[in-house]
Amino acid sequence: MTMNQELDNISEQDLNDDETLMQYLRGELSAEDEAAFLQKIQQNPDLKSRAIAVARLIKGIETKGVADDEKLKSAVKKLSEKDVKKVAKKSGKKAGVWQILTWAAAAAAVVVLVVGMRIYYVNSANERLAAEYENSFQISDVLRGGDGDLDAKMQNWREDVVQGRNLDLTIEKLSGIFTQSQSENYNICTNYFAASGWYLALAHLKNHDPENAKNVLKMLVEKSGDNPALAQKAAEVLERIK
Amino acid sequence: METSNQLILSEFVPMHKEKTIGFLLRTYQCLKYDDCEDIIQDALLVFCDKIRQGKLDKIKSSLYTFFVGICKNKAREFARRDLKIGYIDDDITCGSFSQEKLDSILNLDNDEPEIETAKSLAVNEIINDLPAICAQVFWGYFRDGFSLKTLAKMYGKTESAMKVAKFRCSEKFKNRFQEVFYKILNK
User: Fold this and answer.
1) In a 3-state reduction of DSSP, which class is residue B93?
2) What's the number of CA atoms in the CB half-sphere (13 Å) around residue B144?
3) CATH architecture of B93-187
4) Please, which residues 69-98 of chain A have a Cβ atom closer than 8 Å to chain B?
5) A residues 104-163 closer than 8 Å to B (CB)
6) SS3 (DSSP) at A26
7) Which of A47, A59, B57, B122 has fewest C-beta within 10 Å?
8) How far apart are the C-alpha atoms of A65 and A72, rounded to whole Å?
9) How far apart are CA B171 and CA A15, in angstroms?
10) What is the pLDDT of residue A141?
């Protein structure tokens, strides 16, 4: 039988003997019961060893307990009333559920506000950046001539970007042109690489999408070998995007 | 920054707070958790005041038992406001152990001084490293003198569960004592 199995086999007699031992140690037994108990201890080795162990335990705990209490008394006697009040206050109420929820809601509101303000700041900064660069080039500088119809559309899309309107649709259109313009095969969009790319990047900035703006600007930097002014401006904007 | 003396006092409340509240809530059923926290805070001030005045220099009970007594008085004041509350069974202790009786048992196992020292060391080693439930029972029953009924209220158990726990822990202590004692003796 393992120790745990032995311990699980606690009989009513065991518990009664334990109770009698406690009564004996407190001096609560009559003389007759005391004598009977002491005789039982002598005849029962298990009960005897448990009684001895418990007596040692009680003495040991008492000794340590007294020492701990003396330490506490000594510490408290050295404290001022003000110190004691400080400790007592700290030991006071923990927050109730509603208080915790209120604090959590307030903390969440602060986080949302801070994050919101950060997003607002970043978006506003990028919008201002786009506005700053929207007149960097005359449209004629970036249009390299081509389809008259597409020229007119580019002018309109440029205007949309400058005005900050219909940005999603404008981005879609400009993206198409920009992608086509990079095809290896010459096509009607080829000459619109600079214009579509430039205003696409600015449109992304105004549409609060700095990542896509950066991607477009990187391509402008890489592929504007024949237009160093554009490459330089694109690099400049890339540097300043938040 | 807290001084070391403040730290010692600061440890007292968290060590005993939850079981004190457990006892108060289960004994004075008109109290709420917040009321118990208030009682403990007020009781701590009274308790420290008495220590600083030297009134606890010669008490026989443990300091914690005295502290619970203060909490009881404050709880009774609360309870008196609720006229529907009748008799409150708030006896907490079950008497102290007689040194004479303890010695009579220890004399059944007297040894030479060196061996007795090894036995004391073994006891100290074990009581500094008790499993949680045994620490609750031993300190509460053997040092603070609380009845098993009081301990049951403190820890939210039944009285018979505490009785069984006390017996089991005593048996474990007995077995562990043998191991540690022989280990110390053979060093």
Assistant:
1) strand
2) 24
3) Orthogonal Bundle (1.10)
4) 69, 71-73, 75-79, 81, 83-94, 96
5) none
6) coil
7) B57
8) 11
9) 12
10) 57
Indicate if A63 and A175 belong to the same structural domain: no
Cβ within 8 Å of residue B180, ≥6 positions away: B122, B125, B126
Contact A60 B6 (CB under 8 A): no
Do A75 and A160 sit in the same domain of this protein? Answer: no
Q: Model confidence over B7-40: pLDDT tens digits? A: 889 899 889 999 999 999 999 988 899 999 999 9
Contacts of the segment A232-238: beta carbons below 8 A, 24+ positions apart: A233/A133, A233/A136, A233/A137, A233/A198, A234/A197, A234/A198, A234/A201, A236/A133, A237/A129, A237/A133, A237/A201, A237/A205, A237/A213, A238/A214
Domain boundary residue, one of A54, A88, A122:
A88
Same structural domain, A112 and A182: yes
Rounded Cα distance, A205 and A128, in Å: 9
Q: What's the pLDDT band for B64 if we cut at 50, 70, 90? A: very high
Joined tokens for residue B2: 């807290």
CA–CA distance, B164 with B98 (Å, rounded to integer): 23
Q: In the prediction, which pLDDT does A125 show? A: 84
Contacts of A3 (CB under 8 A, 6+ apart): B175
The yes-or-no verdict on residue B127 having pLDDT over 70 is yes
Whether the per-residue pLDDT at A130 is higher than 70: the answer is: yes
CATH class (in words) of the domain with range B1-90: mainly alpha
Query: pLDDT value at position A2?
Result: 47
Residue A114 lies in domain:
102-240
How many domains does chain A divide into?
A: 2
Q: Which residue of A has its CA nearest to B99?
A: A25
B 42-71: CB under 8 A from A? 44-45, 48-49, 51-52, 54, 56-57, 62-63
Q: Which amino acid is at A148?
A: G
Q: Which amino acid is at A18?
A: D
User: Higher-confidence residue: A67 or A141?
Assistant: A67
**In the predicted structure, residue A98 carries a pLDDT above the cut 60:** no
Q: Which residues of A touch B96 (CB under 8 A)?
A: 26
Cβ-Cβ contacts under 8 Å for A17 (sequence gap 6 or more): A40, A47
